[in-house]
Amino acid sequence: MTIETDITQLGADGDGIARAPDGGRLFIPGALPGERVLADMQDPRAARLVRVLRPSPDRVGPPCPLFGLCGGCALQHFARPATLAWKEALVRHALERAGFAAPPTPATHQSPPGSRRRIDLAVRRLPQGVSIGLHARRGDVIDLTACPVLDPALFALIAELRGLMQSLGALRRTGDAQVNLLDSGPDLLLATDGPLAAADRAKLADFARAHHVPRIAWRPAGSTQSPETASQTAPVRHDLSGVAVTPPPGAFLQPTRQGEAAIIAAILAGLPRRLGRKDTIIELYAGCGTLSFALARHAKVLAFEGHPDAHAALHRAAAGTRVVAERRDLNRQPVMAQHLAQAGAVVLDPPYAGAGAQMAQIIAGRPPCIIYVSCNPQALARDVAGLKDAGYTLDSLTVIDQFLWSTETEAVCVFTAPRRPRRPGR
User: Fold this and answer.
1) Which of 84, 104, 132, 343 could cross-link to 282 by cystine, CB 3.0-4.6 Å?
2) What was the pLDDT predicted at 420?
3) Does the keyword S-adenosyl-L-methionine apply (predicted)?
4) Does 260 show up as a binding residue in the annotation?
5) What is the pLDDT of residues 80-135, one digit of tens each?
6) Does 13 appear as a known binding residue?
7) Average pLDDT rounded to a whole number, residues 55-61
8) Segments forming the whole domain that contains residue 36
């Protein structure tokens, strides 16, 4: 059934939302708020965009020829300022749901095209060759022949990777390739559905030398084990706030340098002014130290990280600095309230699912300042609702769009506790 309808808003996946004939919500990919469109009903809740009858003033031509096929971007047809405003609204609404009725006007940052420095690629061996790229929306791998999001140096490596993967006997049908663009050069983690034979290892070493890739690591497809280094031709190094770190293969890094700088600036601006060098900042979900060494310029940092390889990298880099790295699975063994109460500030950058049990201990500890770095507005709303009940105020908010043209958004929220009353006679 073909219908003519008005789009009222964008959904969480970037789909236009209209009213379905039965009164429910109808999701139409590619449609924008304020538009009137013609759409084919595919089921009671989804439709295919046929034609835009009245376009939004924020509709633009997508810069990538693969848009609509590749699943990496959902919003290339939406003007970048409008996308940032939409993401800002997502974060503000999340905080309002948590009880902060009037969030402060946020500072905003949007990373430019061509700045993405990490990517996780799917690899498929097909009769006509190897396809390497991202999945279509709920579909097969789309060969990544163009990408305005990626750093040009990272995109250029993909064409070379296509030939490498074609030559590997270890790639029978499926695999993947994670690439981080570090200061020392591209860092490559491969996974294949076959074992890595001696001939494959020789090909990896040749590729590494030819394309200045200091390290290539490997593990079996589907495995969560620590990868092995299959080739290393030079030291692996990445600068984090002036400290040289050797991240493990496949390490999490902020996707753009500009976004990382915006996050750090927002955190440092939110630290208590009276924080002294003898005070301690407790950092949770510290990773390899993206925030740790910047924080250490202002106070001692006790940094907790659960992933063994990330913790090991942080621990090695922290030698001789004001950062102490402790390994702890914060989901199973959260830092307890009485410890958190002694901190001058608590900084946390939890995973997509949020802080879970750790958040309850933070609230119970009532540290004077809590800085929450969020990559998921829904988890943010769930986690910080208890802060409102505990009397915290939301002092500042920064919204960061470094996953350009996607629906992902990040935010830095600075919360302060109410002042504790002085005891009589003091």
Assistant:
1) 343
2) 63
3) yes
4) no
5) 999 999 999 999 999 999 999 999 999 999 999 999 999 999 999 999 999 999 98
6) no
7) 98
8) 2-54
Backbone angles phi, psi at 266, to 5 degrees: -65, -40
Same domain, yes or no: 260 and 200: no
Q: Please determine, for residue 58, whether its predicted confidence score (pLDDT) is greater than 90.
A: yes
pLDDT band at 139 (very low <50, low <70, confident <90, very high): confident
Domain count of the fold of the chain: 3
Write down the catalytic residue from 73, 147, 369, 375: 375
- Say whether 395 counts as a known binding-site residue: no
Is 375 in the active site?
yes
Is the model's pLDDT at 207 over the cut of 60? yes
